[in-house]
Design goal:
Blueprint lengths: L1 H12 L9 H24 L13 H31 L4 H39 L1
Helix pairs in contact: 1-2, 3-4
Length: about 130
């Protein structure tokens, strides 16, 4: 939690609201690095049931999936914010009208994510049944 909050603060205020050279920003960066290192150490060496098993990243397919998801999410968030601004500027839409323009995309993403999770679960259950039948 400390890693994520400090990273979000760095991304939000770094260089814009607070100069990078200020001791508070340097402390925040060091705090983020320190707690990320502690998290990785605990996940690798201490936790009996890790929150995120880092050994999964040794698998190329898993790592590539995470990279793709990162870029897809960045594109989706960027598009969502820009589309709302586009409607506000070009059509003089209210905030509500701009939000209604992006609602179908948000609903589609949520529905797709739920459907994908359901299909993956069904596929895994099917594979487990096949492997236990052998």
């Amino acid at each position: 939690m400390v890693t994520i909050v400090s990273l979000l603060l760095i991304l939000d205020i770094g260089g814009i609201k607070v100069p990078w050279q200020r001791p508070s920003m340097i402390s925040l960066i060091l705090l983020c690095i320190l707690f990320a290192t502690i998290f990785c150490y605990v996940e690798l060496n201490v936790a009996t049931e890790p929150i995120f098993p880092l050994r999964l990243l040794k698998n190329r397919n898993v790592t590539l999936s995470y990279i793709i998801i990162f870029f897809e999410t960045a594109a989706m968030l960027g598009t969502t914010s820009k589309v709302a601004s586009y409607f506000r500027v070009t059509e003089d839409a209210t905030n509500l009208q701009a939000a209604l323009h992006i609602t179908p995309g948000a609903l589609g993403n949520a529905t797709g994510a739920l459907l994908t999770g359901f299909l993956i679960r069904r596929y895994i259950e099917h594979c487990l049944l096949l492997s236990s039948a052998r």
